[in-house]
Design brief:
It is a single chain. About 2% of the residues have low confidence. The strands form four sheets. This protein has a seven-stranded parallel sheet, sandwiched between helices. A six-stranded parallel sheet has the order 8-13-12-9-11-10, sandwiched between helices. The chain has a two-stranded antiparallel ribbon with strand order 14-17. By secondary structure, the protein is α/β, with parallel strands linked by helices. The chain folds into five domains: 201 residues, Rossmann fold, CATH 3.40.50.300; 196 residues, P-loop containing nucleotide triphosphate hydrolases (Rossmann fold, 3-Layer(aba) Sandwich), CATH 3.40.50; 88 residues, Arc Repressor Mutant, subunit A (Orthogonal Bundle), CATH 1.10.10; 89 residues, DNA polymerase, domain 1 (Orthogonal Bundle), CATH 1.10.150.80; 104 residues, Arc Repressor Mutant, subunit A, CATH 1.10.10. 41% of the residues are buried.
């Protein structure tokens, strides 16, 4: 009988209780039943699993489903067992089973009871399993999460590369590959590696019109922003992704102490705890799961209302798949990502230890993420274009569902500036990193430029009518437009692409975003902060008043303004409007010491301003800490008092020197006096210390890069940061 005559709706209703198929499901299922190789790309929530579950239940024999996600296998096996009278209808075959359980699985397959056998690729490699499966009736093989096969995919698993040979050695049966995300390059790689170039392809639209996409600057006030956001979804389910296990634990704890029902989920937890946390999320005993990006949760929960990325992922495929967990029931889904270019630099640094081929792939994927975060165009259009799908940003479904479309950002024509930038890269012989190119453009000498005599060239300072931040933003956007690339061998060195060279010869229009530059100066809280719903904008009027007051106080005390409060602290005040000492001491970079020493006048000014301008202040001003930081703070204070070397303090707490210095800076910025003279004396003599202190006394800013450039690179960054700590501790605290 021709499969077109086979009734699929009867079995669909019988097994799953549905009266109609979703999207491309019916076409894919008919193809599988006809015995064809098939390849389906269906976005998360598109119902991929039904494409192999229904034909497996309808056909003779056992279908093998290869999946990397143990948690998802367990979910699906439980779901299939729930619709059948016989528990043996679906089984998992993996390393967690004992001999008795393995024997039972094999017996159920032999007797034809088992219709679906879920295996991890590592289990399928085992010769004993291959030999057993060869002798059984296999209906077809489904490869779920097929992007894991491709080195260009976001979740490459080397063990997937050998699946073609294993499948062929078991039986020559149809193969169906399924994935939620795959660019054209990844699709070709999957088909070639599986040996199914003849497969019928099914590609659903990647557009999820019910999802709202937003990117916010990642700031020092991120926790209060996340707490405020999550409290707006009280009693609803959400997922927060972080890059490291340590950050997962930290975020989960902060949410818990601030009254949010949250649990961590990562590979470092034992299997029992992971399973418990997942079940609690599914059963709605907890509202929020905080998880590592690296660890696939495989949670099939239809009513996840928001997905937050605390850290931006390494690829747009990861981002798309993770945001796709929201709104799978077609209800509301809010996708919020926090972005900082420093996070991208960290990921690049991390990649620099990997083989060159891997680095090239990693850098290419990362630049797409930068492009998405910094773009001023419709984010939906940018995402869909990445997956090879065109989108009408005026009339397409979900056209107004992102922050850029709701609040269009101003753009400026930058054709002339792009030509200047690319010409400078060419004329400096493509030997500089971004910061040196920017220094050349704005005319700031440093040791690197002087050693190559660049400061004597006619073009030195050609772009000084624009700021360093402008040029850095433009460099990033020319990466995205493929005019520049970073050299892999000499990490970070800028090179012109073919497109870049063409642009110099024939410049075309280039519009750059005026206000999507996430620089370190924006290191303060963002988000919906008061009744006026000021998203991401500080109160500029209040900022001017606070700066004026700071200048007066600094003059009176005979210290530079930044020694009173740094700009990020003032910015945080304009977002949170603190009016009590307790509220002020919880503002980033203030702390009890500074609040008591300088706070009175600032609080009076803010209280008057709030009253005169009828401002509703945010409710959750104070983010309760977990106490973890205060233990470390106390340890650092006690051991610097004992004059223990910083190296010893760092190693005893398992910290890198960079992280320890950051912790010390936080302590000093908050107004606590810390005597590290003994460390500074060991690396700098009195004369050197004196000239640096003199510099900071007269400087308008305590920016380290500016200080390093002022001294032509005579001092290392670490030395300069330690001197800044000493200066602020002695002068400001």
């Amino acid at each position: 009988m021709n499969s077109k005559e086979i009734d699929l709706h009867g079995p669909l209703k019988k097994f799953f209780g549905f009266s109609k198929f979703k999207g491309l499901q019916e076409q894919v299922i008919r193809s599988v039943i006809e015995g064809e190789n098939a390849f389906a790309i269906m976005p998360t929530g598109g119902g991929k699993s039904l494409c192999y579950q229904l034909p497996a239940l309808m056909q003779e024999g056992t279908a093998i489903v290869v999946s990397p996600l143990i948690a998802l296998m367990k979910n699906q096996v439980d779901a299939i067992r729930g619709i059948s009278e016989n528990e043996g209808v679906a089984h998992v075959l993996n390393s967690s089973l004992n001999k008795t359980e393995i024997s039972r699985v094999m017996e159920d397959i032999r007797t034809g009871i088992t219709k679906l056998l879920y295996v991890a690729p590592e289990s399928l490699i085992k010769q004993e399993y291959v030999d057993f499966l060869k002798s059984q009736k296999i209906s077809f093989v489904a490869i779920d999460e097929a992007h894991c096969i491709s080195e260009w995919g976001h979740d490459f698993r080397p063990e997937y590369r050998n699946l073609k040979n294993i499948i062929q050695s078991i039986d020559s049966v149809p193969v169906v590959g399924l994935t939620a995300t795959a660019t054209e390059k990844v699709q070709e790689d999957i088909l070639k590696t599986l040996g199914i170039s003849d497969a019928r392809r099914f590609k659903a639209s990647f557009n999820r019109p019910n999802l709202f996409y937003e990117v916010r600057p990642k700031t020092n006030d991120i926790y209060s922003d996340i707490i405020r956001f999550v409290k707006g979804y009280q009693g609803k389910s959400g997922v927060i992704y972080c890059l490291s296990r340590k950050k997962v634990e930290e975020v989960a704890q902060i949410l818990q102490v601030n009254g949010i029902n949250a649990l961590p989920y990562h590979a470092g937890l034992d299997a029992k705890t992971r399973a418990k946390h997942q079940d609690m999320f599914l059963m709605e005993d907890t509202d929020v799961i905080v998880a590592t990006i690296a660890f696939g949760m495989g949670i099939d929960k239809p009513d996840v209302r928001f997905v937050i990325h605390h850290d931006i992922p390494k690829s747009l495929e990861s981002y798309y798949q993770e945001t796709g967990r929201a709104g799978r029931d077609d209800g509301e889904g809010y996708c919020l990502a926090y972005y900082s270019y420093q996070d991208i630099e960290k990921l690049e640094k991390f990649m620099s230890s990997k083989p060159v081929a891997e680095q090239e792939i990693g850098h290419a994927l990362l630049q797409e993420v930068v492009g998405y975060a910094e773009t001023s165009m419709s984010r939906r259009k940018y995402l869909l274009h990445y997956f090879g799908e065109e989108f009408d940003e005026l009339h397409g479904l979900g056209a107004d569902m992102d922050d850029n479309t709701r609040n269009p950002k101003p753009k400026i024509e930058a054709q002339e500036q792009v030509k200047i930038l690319l010409t400078i890269v060419r004329d400096t012989k493509e030997k500089y990193k971004s910061k040196d190119i920017v220094a050349t453009l704005v005319g700031k000498e440093n040791a690197m430029l002087t050693s190559h005599k660049t400061h004597e060239r006619v073009f030195f300072g050609i772009g000084k009518k624009h700021t360093s931040e402008f040029w850095m933003a433009l460099i990033r956007q020319t990466f995205v437009s493929n005019y520049l690339r970073k050299e892999i061998e000499q990490y970070g060195v800028l090179k012109l692409t073919e497109n870049g060279n063409s642009f110099i010869e024939n410049p075309t229009s280039f519009t750059m975003t005026a206000d999507h530059e996430y620089s370190k100066t924006e290191a303060v809280g963002q988000g919906v902060v008061n009744s006026r719903q000021v998203t991401g904008d500080s109160d500029k009027k209040l900022m001017l008043l606070l700066k004026d007051l700071r200048k007066k106080v600094a003059k009176r005390k005979g210290v530079p303004p930044f020694a009173i409060f740094q700009d990020p602290s003032l910015e945080a005040m304009t977002l949170r409007y603190p009016v009590t000492m307790e509220e002020l001491s919880s503002v980033y970079g203030v702390g009890d010491g500074k609040a008591r020493k300088f706070g009175k006048e600032f609080l009076e000014l803010i209280a008057t301003y709030v009253s005169e301008n009828d401002i509703t202040r945010p409710d959750d001003l104070i983010v309760k800490g977990t106490g973890l930081k205060s233990g470390l703070k106390l340890y650092i204070i006690q051991n610097t008092d004992r004059k223990l070397s910083l190296e010893d303090i760092a190693s005893s707490k398992g910290l890198e020197m960079e992280d320890l210095i950051k912790e010390i800076e936080t302590i000093v910025y908050s107004g606590t006096k810390l005597d590290i003279s003994y460390c500074v004396d060991a690396i700098l003599d009195d004369e050197q210390q004196e000239e640096i202190i003199e510099y900071f006394m007269d400087a308008e800013t305590d920016d380290i890069q500016e200080a390093i450039e002022e001294f032509d690179g005579d001092y290392e960054e670490e030395d300069m940061r330690l001197m800044r700590i000493k200066f602020l501790s002695e002068v400001g605290n």
